[in-house]
Write the structure tokens for this entry.
Amino acid sequence: MSVEYTGRHYEVTAADRREVESGLSKIKKILRGNFDSKVVLAVEKHRHKAEITINSRVGPLVALSQAKDMRAAIGNALEHLEKQALKNKTRIITKKRRNHTARDLEAALPEEKVAAAAVSSTVSIVVHKFPAFEKSTDVHLLRSDDAVALRPMTLEEAIKEAHFRDRDVFVFRDPKGKLMILHRTRDGKMELIEAP
């Protein structure tokens, strides 16, 4: 465990170093590993600030505290780091997978099947279960004012407008007010769809 001290408008004393290192030794027991830490002790006006950063294999832990004296600021920062370390440790422990043994499988089965499983020493397991419904592809909605004509136009005007706007789908109304859709196929041809 290496500790780097920095004092800003403050002289780091041996007592401060002992207090920080004793607190970091508690955190080392919690994290169960070596880590690098940086300690910044600063004084601004009448405020004493302590910032402690730990770079461990779990990730960075940072604590910032300020108080009227430096010992209280260091104590608060170490307390905050200890809480963070415990939180990370419990999070990692709960994420780890449990090893399923035969005893766990027997506990999950009803008593009749346990007796049958013990005699034949075979357990039926569902290998694959098909989903209840088939998943569909995601729909992507794209709202565009470029693909819709605001005024009625003839078919020739609509084709020119679709080419000009470089749209694969173009919606317009003909001079009679009927809704029409122009669609460009993959081979480049234009299809006309009349809406009812």
About this structure: The domain at 2-95 is CATH 3.30.160.100 (Double Stranded RNA Binding Domain).
